[in-house]
From TrEMBL:
GO CC terms, sorted: nucleus
Keywords, ordered alphabetically: RNA-binding
Protein name: Integrase catalytic domain-containing protein
Annotated Integrase catalytic domain residues: 162-308
Length: 308
């Protein structure tokens, strides 16, 4: 069983003191350990008040106190959420107790992070409690040993040989869901990026185009002007994996290198270009297919695309 070496430790501030049990109910000497309910009852019976309570109310995380996010009840400070309220804990010893009780004790069984957060949300609150709870669970040695990973192991990074000539290796991907524009009501763009010069071409098209339409578009705009690329890197879009597209590039002697969508080590160049283009086009397409500049002229996004 492999253990993540980066996560096989506990943070010192959460580590139980020597002689303090971590099993939840009974320690090594047979003394009963207080459960979560008992801990909270003890806090309530002691009328849990920090000597720095008045100072804490001026802290940045309690600036919403006047807006009813926090409220006092019998001298106890509570955090108010949409559907629940939780006792505010300030003392680090009590925080450590609650973290161990909500995760390590036998009746909790080292359950998933989401279920523990759901339980904790109505139990106790302190600043950045979700982040601390996540770190506490991720560094649990028992969870690292016992939990199994059901997915396949991640593969090694795939090296892409850098091209020596322009348009020798290209990345391709799509931008879809655009507002129809132009005389032909274009609603998509085929983004093609040259890996050597990092130049980009945006070819207007339709989301409904077939593999034949995409091949003709690529032939008329790329192959006829830039030549036949040696390697084409793209995701596994049905247009790129179709039999027609594959046979076409077999005859041309081009290698098709497919990757998964948004794979940063493989198709990252095209994905980053697409993200930038989407940010630009979103400005023009958010409220319609026309854009009025500061001089009052009206433009469609298809006419502004080359400027991007």
């Amino acid at each position: 069983m492999e253990i993540d070496r980066k996560k096989n430790f506990r943070f010192s501030e959460w580590a139980p003191e020597s002689g303090t049990p971590d099993n939840g109910n009974i320690d090594s000497e047979g003394t009963e350990v207080p459960t979560l309910c008992v801990i909270l009852l003890q806090l309530l019976q002691q009328r849990y008040r920090s000597p720095e309570l008045e100072y804490q109310l001026e802290e940045p995380w309690l600036r919403d106190y006047k807006d009813n996010k926090y409220f006092l009840n019998n001298g106890l400070l509570y955090d108010r959420e949409k559907h629940t309220s939780a006792l505010t804990i300030i003392d680090r010893d009590h925080i450590s107790l609650i973290l161990r009780e909500c995760h390590d004790c036998p009746y909790m069984g080292h359950i998933s992070e989401d279920r523990i957060k759901e339980r904790m949300a109505s139990t106790a609150w302190w600043p950045k409690w979700e982040q601390e709870l996540s770190e506490y669970i991720n560094t649990c040695e028992i969870c690292q040993k016992a939990n199994r990973k059901h997915g396949k192991k991640f593969g090694l990074l795939q090296h892409i040989e850098e091209p020596k000539h322009p348009w020798e290796t290209i990345n391709m991907d799509w931008i879809t869901g655009l507002v129809p524009g132009g005389k032909e009501n274009f609603n998509a763009c085929l983004i093609i990026v040259d890996r050597l010069r990092k130049s980009m071409r945006c070819l207007l098209c339709h989301k409904e185009d077939t593999a034949m339409d995409t091949s003709l578009l690529f032939w008329n705009n790329i192959i006829s002007t830039c030549g036949v690329p040696k390697i084409i890197i793209s995701d596994r879009d049905p247009k790129f994996t179709s039999e027609f597209w594959t046979n076409l590039y077999d005859m041309l002697g081009t290698k098709l290198a497919f990757s998964t969508a948004y794979h940063p080590q493989r198709d990252g160049l095209a994905e980053r270009m697409i993200q930038t283009m989407e940010d630009i086009l979103r400005i023009f397409c958010a409220y319609g297919m026309e854009y009025k500049d500061h001089e009052g002229y009206i433009h469609e996004w298809v006419t502004l695309l080359p400027a991007g």
